Amino acid sequence: MTQPPAVPGDQRGWLAWYAVPETSIPYDRLVRAAQESSFPKECLPRPLDRKAAWEQAFSLPEAGREVRPSDALRQRCPDPALTCRLHVRPVRRRMPLIRHLELEVVCPGAVTPGEQRRTAVVAVLRLDDKGHSCSTVIGSWMELVDGDDVARAVRRMEEDYRRLLDAAPPGASREAVRRRLKALSAILLRATGALYYIPHAACPDGKELMACRDFLSRSSGGQFTFVRLLAGDAQAVADVRAAVVETLRRQLAAIHDEAGRLKEVADPDKRERLAARLLTTFQEVAETTRRVQASLQDTLQELEDLLLLAKRSVAGV
């Protein structure tokens, strides 16, 4: 439904911002949250198809995933810098649904270049025509790495694939709210981070924003906050900015504390998963912090310009 245009010069409306935790949620939970909160389902992103889910699950960070060298390999290469990493490699451009899991062994202290770095294909990863994941562990990798680290890595990717088939796309609830705000003719205030201005004419009573708040709470445990902006109410903007700064302060402190607790996690696989999740959270908070810093810098520069202008005016009297 097309909303009536705002009255020219009418600065009434709403300021809204939100925080959504980086958690994976089932897609049916996303749909149920929309139904229960009267949130428009057309704003929900589509679920991942099997191909997209497989491509996401059967991938590793660019640096690879570190696995433990076997005792036999450590005896042959006692260099402390010895590392073993797994990488997912495409086979051919024309075969996007077949990938190789490659083991890379780097021993800088070895004598010959061939011993300094060696690679071996240790598994074939494939998605068949029916959307079933088929993985085959191959190669004489047992003499290079400790235990069943390779098989464990493959099993983890298989589990991720099955989870993604039932899960909503990453950031689905955040994307849904972003689409809803865009439909309400909201303006993203880029200089101040994820703050939105919604004209009064597009949302007179705030009912749509209450639906966004209820939807985020039900779907992902996120927080959606909005304040009424009256004509000429500059204090509302200052209050919002102060609230954002306080939220960032708490988030950064929580990240610092969580990083300290991660050092005490004994299970390396669990520690790696938690560390990756913490890094994602930090990157998001850091980006918002940089935007808020830029906003504050803009305000300081504006004051400096006004001060200089006033100084010149006084000097010219």
Jot down its keywords.
five-stranded antiparallel sheet, disordered N terminus, single chain, 2 domains, 317 residues
Describe this structure in words.
With 317 residues, the chain is α+β, with helices and mostly antiparallel strands. The protein folds into two domains: 13-44 and 169-305, no CATH class; 50-166, no CATH class. 47% of the residues lie in helices and 20% in strands. The chain has nine helices and nine strands. The chain has helices at residues 27-37, 50-57, 71-76, 113-116, 149-166, 172-183, 207-219, 234-262, 268-315; strands spanning 13-19, 65-67, 83-92, 95-106, 117-127, 133-137, 187-189, 195-199, 223-229. The chain has a five-stranded antiparallel β-sheet. Helix 2 (50-57) packs antiparallel against helix 5 (149-166), helix 6 (172-183) runs antiparallel to helix 7 (207-219) and helix 8 (234-262) packs antiparallel against helix 9. The termini are far apart. The relative contact order is 0.16.
Provide a concise account of the structure shown.
With 317 residues, the protein is α+β, with helices and mostly antiparallel strands. Helix content is 47%, strand content 20%.
| Overall helicity | 40-55%
**Most strands sheet:** 5 strands, antiparallel
Low-confidence stretches: 1-9
Shape descriptor reads: globular
Helices and strands in order, then pairings?
Blueprint: E1 13-19, H1 27-37, H2 50-57, E2 65-67, H3 71-76, E3 83-92, E4 95-106, H4 113-116, E5 117-127, E6 133-137, H5 149-166, H6 172-183, E7 187-189, E8 195-199, H7 207-219, E9 223-229, H8 234-262, H9 268-315
Antiparallel strand pairs: 1-8, 1-9, 2-3, 3-4, 4-5, 5-6, 7-8
Helix pairs in contact: 1-7, 2-5, 6-7, 8-9
